[in-house]
Here is the input.
Amino acid sequence: MNVLDLVRTDLRDFGGYGSARKTGLKGRVWLNANESPWASPADPGQGLNRYPEPQPAALRARLAALYGVPEDSLLMTRGSDEGIDLLTRALCRAEREAILVSPPVFGMYAVSARVQGAPVVEVPLVDDGDRFRFDIDAALRALELSVAKAPVKILYVCSPSNPTGGAVSNADLERLLRGVAGRALVVVDEAYGEYNEAPGALALRERFPNLVVLRTLSKAYALAGARLGITIGDPTLIRVLAAIAPPYPLASPAVALALDAVSPSAADEAKRRAGRIVAERGRVAEALRGLDGVRAVYASDANYLLVRFADAEAAMQALLAAGVVVRDQRAAPQLKDALRITIGTAEENDAMLAALAALPARVAATA
Here is the structure.
């Protein structure tokens, strides 16, 4: 299949804005971008009076090596959020093409669709008691049913899923990709992929042009404040996304930080830290299951745990009183008694466990 056939017809040959840096011209005296010729007094010597490269070549080469993909299959964005927004706008016309999501799940997929005016088809995750599962069969049925009204053009698969923590196996992803081939993209959001011990979706990339994988430096690479996401897909699709992206999406200081963060030594350290988080995740899950007020701790392939409580409000207040902040999930579908707890350092995790262990006996007794 030609993945370009899935893109909006009016954007397939769209060139986008021709910024001053996009031309690739070389020179010594720069008078083409209406920049200040002087650096700001606040500039720490990074040349911030000049616009950055739209897609910095050195960083793109380093990220391509990190993920084992060709450079032309990779687009750098302001976090994965921007990649989600670009994909939704590139494939979905307002009120005419839809996206599919699997709640409870990361909210930005639906937010981007709403801003674009694209309908949202929901196929809920299935609660198997100890793990939430993406329902492949239900997703394929929903795709068929959507054709008459607003055909689904993008299926967003969060793996590991936020906030539930479960990953979708590559065998299941392959079945989904085959089932929607020629009709829709499958966008696998692997923001937490470094914490998943099973192979990721990039292993399927060469066989499925309708696969897009989102990665980020916000989690395992500890650059949440730098806002740098990576969209990996067929080069023809990446060119379309680059054309509709803002002219200068990446700030120069963020690029400099990212170059250092994905150097071979720093990448090795990120992997070691991810391993420590995985080990702590197991320890914390076991400890939580031993607390009287805890109803369920779901299996997780990410750096957090979804936990059901006998009294989630009491648990939340006990944690806040101890200075521990977790994510309240009670407004999300199927999660009226749940909190999401990020795995921190051993000391931070112990503080969280101690706060929950100190819940009044009457609260635990309601379990």
Remarks:
- The CA atoms of residues 79 and 228 lie 4 Å apart.
- The mean pLDDT is 95.
